[in-house]
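Hi Y.,

Following your request, here is the sequence exactly as I used it, all 316 residues.
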Amino acid sequence: MIVCTTSDLSAEMRQKIAKETQVPVVQRTINELSKREKNAVEILITYGNFDDAVTVEELRKLPGLKWIHVLSSGTEQLPITPIKDKNILVTSSKGIHAIPISEYVIFAVLYFAKHIPQFIKLQEQKSWSYTAGMSEVYGKTLGVLGTGVIGLEIARKARALGMRVIGVNRSGRHMAGFDEVHRVQRLKEIVPCCDYICSALPSTDETRNLIDKNIIQLMKDQVIFMNVGRGDVIVEEHLLEALRTGKIGGAALDVFKSEPLEAQHPFWRMKNVLITPHASARTNMYMFRALQMFLENFRYYQQNALQFMVNKVDFH
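Below is the corresponding structure, written out as tokens. Let me know if you'd prefer a different format.
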């Protein structure tokens, strides 16, 4: 049996999975399953966090579970110990976010370059003002931290606007689509060149708190910062101070160190901050792409050709 724990799955999608896999599909949380159903679960489809969180205790109640497909790109939210103990296969939906997140980044670049908040305010005031101006992004430099599928798509779209794009990754290996690529160890040399900086980095021991006051101090004055990776890549207290002083001119933040962002957080009150609730990838195509990836992997799973499955996660 396949169990999907998220309410995002439509009846049409549930029927599609059942039809293409020829396996019964149940859409409920693990705690809502009967004992008989828990014993029958072989495959779990889940985000694994927030309202869709999966606990250690819940996993231990699924004795026949063999495979977890995570509907997001990250899998750090899963309880690793029982997964390792039971040798459960885990796959993610890494890669499906490239189109929507890259569109979001380009939107954020233009949002600040074209001074959209200023024009919204003028419209609300019914004010026809020639004093309000716009900037161009043509010829400007965008630094993209992370050169995976999302970073590559951001670079492709930004270069179409005439921007110069510098990529930063662990190896420094050049990748088509970027004007330059450098190792993350050279970050201090890269940030002074950038008019816009976008982090598309995952949360790892190497990336947590990578961007601190020392890196921020080296950035251009009034640089625009965007984060679509993980919130703990930047030290939020240092980002706050840089936004208050104007060192960072504006920030588009889709991810935060702690989510949901608490109502009292200063970010909510800052006029030079655009906040979106971890929504940059959530379009009407999201679930379709995630389930297509699941179904493609299911064909290999059914044939016991696990070596061909994509986005397998190794917790060992």
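The mean pLDDT is 95.

Thanks again,
Q.
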